[in-house]
Amino acid sequence: MGEASPAILVLEDGTVFHGRSVGAPGERAFELVFNTALTGYQEILTDPSYCRQGVLMTYPQIGNYGICLQDDESARCWTEAFIMHQLSPAASNWRSDMPLGQYLKERDVLAIEGVDTREITLKLRQKGALRAVLSTECFDADALLAIALAHPSLEGQNLVDQVTCKEKYSWTEAADDAPSLADDAPRLPLVCLDFGIKRNILRCLVSAGFDLTVVPAHTTAEEILALNPAGVFLSNGPGDPAALASIHAQVTKLVEANVPIFGICLGHQILAHVFGAQTFKMRFGHHGANHPVIESATGRIDIASHNHGFAVDPDSLEKSGLVLTHQNANDGTVAGMRHKDKPIFSVQYHPEAAPGPHDPFHLFGRFREIILAAKECVV
């Protein structure tokens, strides 16, 4: 592996951690969050929802099954920095194309190992997500602290413009492990608004019987309706949902056109704003692959993947026309909602997994059922 270069991590509260650089050289500031998933580090690195964030993995050894390039969730890594207790010295996996360390260097991700990730995690739980700087170039802790303190909060930031696609495209690849329809089942045209969409969401939608057209985040409602979709999907993505006024306006027009809509994560939060509800920034968010979610109507519990730093204010739902459908069993936060009268629903978590359990795969089929029921109601 060769001798590692030194690296330094400085948090905005003044705490300093020294370790070894195992990624690209450089210096970056970011909001630091922790992720409790045991696997899925590659999917985390390539999830656009982590734009402008650094990720600390709580599991002590990362990288032991290497990198399979087919598992990328987007065309690049979005995580600014990656913090580990130990980068595995070996990768054992017949699918592996390269070790994680090589991947991090080739994709310009700063990474550090040899730090006490337990201490940092406890600090983030106590104080909330913290701004931080990781550097392999400057080791002046006071200078780095000043950079961290000057780094803007994610609150109020529109990051969707940085991650959305530049032009529309079609997606046809299905998921290997998601339930699929019979070959003779009719397929439904679906437009997906890309706020930072993950590839496995697209795969799951294809498996659920949709023909997909993915469009940039600022595509107008008129342009979307001109494609004659049976429904519209609102994707995950980074940043503050309250900062997306122009997107709220276009989704409002889709709602007024009575188009069936399904939203995940940021898409879920955007729907809240469209109907007059509010969102807030969480202390340290939900980032992991094992969060229990309770469905209010049935008591069904799904173990689900989560990645969000904002949440819907439950007290703001009362006059919105939206009904709470799911809650996070750990802290009671809003995990899902539907409209009382319209074919619209959303979830805060990630039913596509990648990484994570497959319990919520059924939601993609539920969207199809909602669309078909809405079509039957049209005279």
* CATH class category label of the largest domain: Alpha Beta
Give a short account of the largest sheet: 10 strands, mixed
CATH superfamily of the largest domain: Class I glutamine amidotransferase (GATase) domain
Helix content: 10-25%
Mean pLDDT, as a whole number?
96
Q: How many H/I helices?
A: 10
Number of strands: 19
Low-confidence stretches: none
CATH topology of the largest domain: Rossmann fold
Keywords, please?
379 residues; alpha/beta; Glucose Oxidase, domain 1; Rossmann fold; 2 domains; ten-stranded mixed β-sheet; seven-stranded mixed beta barrel; 19 strands; 30% strand
Describe this protein's structure.
With 379 residues, this protein is of the alpha/beta class. It folds into two domains: 5-150, Carbamoyl-phosphate synthase small subunit, N-terminal domain (Glucose Oxidase, domain 1, 3-Layer(bba) Sandwich), CATH 3.50.30.20; 160-377, Class I glutamine amidotransferase (GATase) domain (Rossmann fold, 3-Layer(aba) Sandwich). Helices cover 23% and strands 30% of the residues. It contains ten helices and 19 strands. It has helices spanning 41-45, 100-106, 117-127, 141-150, 160-163, 199-207, 221-225, 245-256, 266-274, 362-377, and strands spanning 5-11, 16-21, 27-35, 53-57, 61-62, 81-83, 86-87, 110-113, 130-135, 169-171, 188-194, 210-216, 231-234, 261-264, 279-295, 301-312, 322-328, 334-339, 344-347. The chain has a ten-stranded mixed sheet with strand order 10-12-11-13-14-19-18-17-15-16, sandwiched between helices. Strands 1-2-8-6-4-3-9 form a seven-stranded mixed barrel. A hairpin with a 4-residue loop joins strand 1 (5-11) and strand 2 (16-21). Helix 8 packs across helix 9 (266-274). The radius of gyration is 21 Å and the shape is globular. The chain starts with a strand and ends with a helix. 51% of the residues are buried. The model has no long low-confidence stretch (mean pLDDT 96).
